[in-house]
Amino acid sequence: MTDLLPRYPAELSGFAFGDAPINRSDALRDDPDALAQLWARGRVIVLDADGSAFADEAGKLLVTRGDALGAGPGTAVFLGRHGDEAWFSVEADVLALQAPQRVDLRRAAAAWSAADASAFAFARAMQHWRSRSRHCGICGGVVEFRRAGYVAHCTQCGADHYPRVDPAVIVAVSDGERLLLGRQASWPAQRYSVVAGFVEPGESLEQTVVREVFEETRVRVRSCRYLGAQPWPFPGALMLGFVADAEPDVPQVDGELEDARWFTVEEIAAARLRKGDDASGILLSPRISIARSLIEHWYATVTAGDR
After folding, report:
1. How far apart are alpha carbons 220 and 249 in whole angstroms?
2. Which pLDDT belongs to residue 84?
3. Which residues are bridge partners to 224 per DSSP?
4. What's the rounded Cα separation, in Å, for the pair 125 and 55?
5. Chain centroid to CA 209: how far?
6. Alpha carbon distance 303, 307 (integer Å)
7. How far from 176 is each of 7, 248, 251, CA to CA, in Å?
């Protein structure tokens, strides 16, 4: 089967986890015989308890095959396929396997191929959900995982529970000339980024943009437009990227952010060129994130007339 590759807006390319997605091959989740055959030559991502992946001496994803691990897929999660190659993930504590090193997801996003990093992100998100779904949320009964790891079935009341994804908006807000950025106290010194926040029940994405920007900065959004999305498994979010036009209100913060302010094109231009050891100016979001792509989109839009 040919992999289905989504088309992303070119202006938001470059962030991690969005390219080279796995073909989920949903129909195979109910076919244990097919999974057993795929396991033998399938590629297996091994995750330790804190969500880091087994890696080789060079820090790349450790190439582990199902037949080298023995038996069948067992409790492994079937991630899907890249072409004809099946991918699984498994917990390290069920294996007698050692690795030269272990790599966390942020490091992998910056250094691994798009296919390997995207598969790792998928595996990490599934691990997070499964580790927090040991008991039924209805009756408290113990669950067992079915459909190759995608259904948590309660052995007591029979309820089925499914993987959770938390949608959040992330938005580049402009007053037409400047870009609104904020920072949290826990971030590295001088780092600023675009505004983000989780969608609440009964709320549209556009309503979330208006509410979150106002709650965090007291800036009033007039209109917004969706651009693209990024899976963000830290631990289980989906970041929905927007651009927004806003009133030139004076930003005010009240707890959630340490600071928020408007930045000029010149300030963003300088920040884009800043090196890691340069102490002057602000530090932008890392390039693995959709936040940085939104900043780059805004910069390219406002400077388009100067090119």
Report:
1. 7
2. 86
3. 244
4. 18
5. 19
6. 7
7. 28, 9, 15
Unique residue bearing structure tokens 């949903």: 26
Q: What is the C-alpha to C-alpha distance for residues 166 and 133, in angstroms, rounded to an integer? A: 15
pLDDT at 5 over 50: no
Length of the chain: 307
3-state secondary structure the chain: CCCCCCCCCHHHCCCCCCCCCCECCHHHHHCHHHHHHHHHHCEEEEECCCCCEEECCCCCECCEEHHHHCCCCCCCEEEEEECCEEEEEEEHHHCCCCCCEEECHHHHHHHCCHHHHHHHHHHHHHHHHHHCCCECCCCCCEEEEEHHHCEEEECCCCCEECCCCEEEEEEEEECCCCEEEEECCCCCCCECECEEEECCCCCCHHHHHHHHHHHHHCCCEEEEEEEEEEEECCCCEEEEEEEEEECCCCCCCCCCCCEEEEECHHHHHHHHHCCCCCCCCCECCCCCCHHHHHHHHHHHHHHHHHC
What's the one-letter identity of residue 98? Q
Structure-token pair, residue 155: 């052995």
Cα 19–chain centre separation: 12
The identity of residue 55, as a single letter, is A
CB 136 within 8 A of CB 36: no
pTM comes to 0.90
pLDDT at 186 over 70: yes
CA–CA gap between residue 3 and residue 6 (Å, rounded): 10
Q: Are 208 and 137 in contact (CB under 8 A)?
A: no
Q: Distance between CA atoms of 224 and 206, rounded to whole angstroms? A: 7
What proportion of the chain, given as a percentage, has pLDDT over 70? 94
Closest to 291 measured CA to CA, from 299, 279, 303, 302: 299
Q: Which residues are CB-neighbours of 95 under 8 A, at least 6 positions away?
A: 46, 69
The answer for residues whose C-beta is within 8 angstroms of residue 229's C-beta and 6 or more apart is: 18, 238, 239, 240, 241, 290
